[in-house]
Amino acid sequence: xxxxxxxxxxxxxxxxxxxxxxxxxxxxxxxxxxxxxxxxxxxxxxxxxxxxxxxxxxxxxxxxxxxxxxxxxxxxxxxxxxxxxxxxxxxxxxxxxxxxxxxxxxxxxxxxxxxxxxxxxxxxxxxxxxxxxxxxxxxxxxxxxxxxxxxxxxxxxxxxxxxxxxxxxxxxxxxxxxxxxxxxxxxxxxxxxxxxxxxxxxxxxxxxxxxxxxxxxxxxxxxxxxxxxxxxxxxxxxxxxxxxxxxxxxxxxxxxxxxxxxxxxxxxxxxxxxxxxxxxxxxxxxxxxxxxxxxxxxxxxxxxxxxxxxxxxxxxxxxxxxxxxxxxxxxxxxxxxxxxxxxxxxxxxxxxxxxxxxxxxxxxxxxxxxxxxxxxxxxxxxxxxxxxxxxxxxxxxxxxxxxxxxxxxxxxxxxxxxxxxxxxxxxxxxxxxxxxxxxxxxxxxxxxxxxxxxxxxxxxx
Length: 461
Ligand code: PMP
Known about the structure:
This is Aspartate aminotransferase family protein. The protein is an alpha/beta fold.
């Protein structure tokens, strides 16, 4: 059998991919007909494909490559750790230095008294940990009926049975028998799509008070926790109105409901602070971290919990864990990633320099005829596409039709932008420079122009 390498013709790689590889969140039959793009290497903010095209990655992979591609330091650390101790578990009275050091570092970086780290391999797994740990916590406190999680429609918390249930994606709930019992979804603070005639401020309060209504309806003695992303990511980079989070915090405090901030995207600098909870001014009892923890160079995630929760959980055996919890190679890579984020002051740079620069450029896109609003926090941003900015109208086509066209035009202009319905989103590597931001915006405008031309031709505008 011939070896399958980067040097094979693209069509052969595409045919092999179509024959044996099932892609996540993809209609695989359709993809096979269309032909997949083969990414062969990456450096900084650029990907290269098998045809030699250089593509600016406006999504940092899946919101994760915060320090950019091609940092040899991480490869070196991984190789060193693999030689020294490639694997050991932390289940039965053992530990190892990478897990000790990473937990210590995370406890130092995370806000408040979030000082105890339970490792996992992915954000989905960490949120599954949260479901089991929170329910066990309340049971240990003599309140086993406090088992309901309140989450939000259009939230994303992962794809496993538990985390997919926490999430509020209706297309996911339509398949595979989720959500599991005792997960309750309230409406999201998405003013552009759902705010109607109310001001963003009033709407933010209304949507926060939906949490209070749900607690009162379900019973305070039944509700365990509220989970949310500080800024919804996969839902379309929905930045909540300023009134939203303070009211949510007040309600969680009043009813003794644990607040879980899912920081899988927002953590490690994405919003211009180390954690989105800091940007949004909230005090979570638990945070979920993944992605930027290792900049995607190795799969690793964690639930980071307060002194109170860790103390209660420590009083009993917690029958939960993963083979790769605290994997030494992934932990060593994450530590090196954090060292780079700190030493190169990448988070500060996003907050005071490149973030504000991107904000100015991104918000200027609202002068484009297709763009209704532009939202941005740090380096996660979205624009709403609309045929009528004043009325925030939808297109006369299925939701997502125009977004998909725009994504394809973006791809054709060598920029990775993602669409969520008819919103376009970006989340570039945090190391993106000013000149690379200029290029990203230029390509985004070309994509918008090309999209406008096509949908005008199609009679959608
Ligand atoms: N939570 C959030 C907020 C996410 O964005 C994601 C992934 N996009 C997850 C959880 C799930 O992480 P993973 O894909 O690593 O399981």
